[in-house]
Structure formats: C-alpha cells, structure tokens
Design a protein that fits this description.
By secondary structure, this protein is α+β, with helices and mostly antiparallel strands. The protein is built from ten helices and twelve strands.
C-alpha cells in the first residue's frame, strides 16, 4: 500500500493569494525599514505602513492556519519589526519636568480657502489657541477670517496669502515679526518670531509640495530638507503644518533627529489620521499634519479637530516653552 500525498488546505489558489500578499507586504516593509524615500509610488506606500503592518499580521496568521510555513515566517517576522517602529506612537512617552509658559498651537490646511472660516475661528476660541498656522491660505479666505473676527482672538499676523494652494500664514495672540526661516519653495511657508512673554519662539507654517505629484518627489525632499533644524543657541523653534509626510518617511525622521519631537507621538496620538477628513473609506486615513516642537518643550496635549469644508483635520497641541 502506498501513501497518498495530502494536499494542503485551500490548494494552489490559496497559496497564490498568500504568496502574492506576502510579497507585497515584504516589499512595502523593506522600503520602510531601509528608509527608502524613492519614487512617488514608494512614498505613497510608506505612508500606509500602519495598514501594511495589519495586513502582514493577518496574512501571517492565515498562512499559519493553512500551513504555509514560509509565508507565515516571513510576514510575521517583518510585522514584528514594523510593530517596534509603529506601535510606540499609540502610547504616551514620559513627560519631562518643565518650568515655563504654556503655549497652544493649532494648524489647519484650508483646502485652497474652502474651509469654514466661522467654524475654524470657533475652534480657535474653544481651544484657547495662542498661535494658528494656516496652509493653502487664499485672499478670499483672509476676508472670510476677518468677517469671522479671527483678529479678536489672534490680533497679530504674518499672512502670505495667494490664490490657489500656495499661500500660508500665521496668526498669534502675541506680537509677531515676519522671518524667512526656509529657502524659497513651490508652496509658501510663512515664518514668524512670536514675542512670547519671557522667551521668543520661532514658528513655521509648513507645507512642502506633495511627493505624489507627477513631477516626482524631488521638490518635496528639498522642501523638507530646507526646514530649519532645531538650534540650541537660537529661539525655541516650532514647525506646524501639513508636512505631506508621515513618521514613517525617512525625510521627516531625519528632521526629527535634528532636535524635534512630534507632539502627537509624545502623548500617544501618533496614529490619529489627519487626511483625508472627508473620505471614510478611500483613500485610507494617514497622519501627515504635525506639530514638531523643540525637544526641550514638554508636550501636554494633542488633539485632532474636524473643521467643515477642508479635506484635512486641524491639529492642536499644548506644550511648555521653558524659561531661559
């Protein structure tokens, strides 16, 4: 009597699906783990790293269930490594002791001036915002903000409004002086020195060109590389805005390594999606809006806020500017 080879559960079709999915997870994971900011398609895939992690775990578990051992081993191993990179964003870091003045910063991409100005100003008041960074600020939006009485809450401003999506601005409770803190870029990135009582703070309304434009990601890389590093000898520095990058992109991690911390990551909200605000299913939500603060500033809170009319959610963070 001869033994009849047993076919594995699911047959060849299941094997094909698992191998194909496992290969996709492997390639996406390796791009993220090796820090390759390559083509626009690779950058778009890197933005989806948390979803790749979930897909990898599911693929590995199914592969275990149907005894595709090689697929299970590779996908679960890569998922474990990705988990070490992604999971800490969901847990708060220990807050260092800091003595100084609290500062609350809000950032909002206005979708070429289509955001609801009255709703935005209401959120500014509700959250008692000190500094507001705006992207895609148009002349018409400035008029809408004036009608909504933004100046009553934040009377000082550095606005670089332009038609289309290239304008930006900063509004503040405290006096501001315009500063050129970035090289020339396709999208304007307003900079200002905020005369905070006790210690000045520099802030940039960040908005690099998206990396997925047909021309490719080169300008996005230059824009991110041109953002000012944190310096120990100058003012406390804050970068707030639409970075068109997640914490999985190597270009943003390099910027963080110059001496910044991501406010959302510090308080355990680093996976809260900020774009798109108006699409519940596709494309998947990603975290591309950030408040980066000097790592000498203890972060207290971070919140994602919905403002009608925009495809981005606003973000609000409270942190402490240490005394000099």
């Amino acid at each position: 009597m001869t033994d009849v080879p047993r076919s594995r559960p699911g047959g060849g079709f299941v094997t094909f699906l698992l191998v194909t999915t496992g290969l996709a997870v492997t390639l996406a994971a390796l791009v993220r783990l090796f820090g390759i900011d390559g083509t626009r398609y690779m950058l778009a895939t890197t933005a989806l790293t948390p979803y790749v992690l979930v897909l990898g775990v599911l693929t590995g578990l199914v592969a275990l269930l149907v005894k595709r051992w090689a697929v299970a081993l590779v996908t679960l191993l890569l998922s474990a490594v990705l988990t070490a990179a992604v999971a800490p964003r969901a847990f708060p870091d220990s807050r260092p002791v800091g003595v100084g003045r609290p500062l609350k910063v809000m950032s909002m991409n206005l979708l070429v001036g289509k955001a609801d100005a009255e709703a935005l100003v209401e959120q500014v008041r509700r959250h008692d915002v000190d500094v507001l960074a705006l992207q895609e600020l148009t002349p018409a939006m400035v008029a809408d903000l004036d009608r909504a009485k933004l100046a009553q809450a934040l009377p000082y401003r550095v606005f670089r409004d332009e038609p289309g999506g290239s304008g930006s601005g900063i509004a503040s409770r405290y006096p501001v002086t315009a500063r050129d803190l970035t090289p020339p870029s396709t999208l304007r990135q307003a900079g200002a020195l905020v005369d905070l009582p006790g210690r000045d703070v520099e802030i940039v309304s960040v908005h690099p060109l998206p990396p997925v434009v047909p021309e490719g990601p080169e300008q996005w890389q230059r824009d991110l590389a041109g953002l000012p590093a944190r310096t120990l000898t100058g003012p406390i520095r804050v970068l707030a805005g639409d970075f068109n990058a997640t914490l999985d992109h190597a270009s943003l991690r390099r910027l963080l390594n110059t001496g910044y911390v991501d406010a959302a990551d510090q308080v355990g909200d680093g996976l809260a999606p900020t774009w798109p605000a108006d699409s519940p299913w596709w494309p998947p939500g990603v975290t591309i809006d950030h408040v980066l603060v000097d790592n000498r500033c203890p972060v207290d809170t971070f919140e994602v806020v919905d403002v009608p009319g925009s495809d981005h959610r606003a973000i609000v963070s409270r942190f402490v500017v240490p005394a000099p």
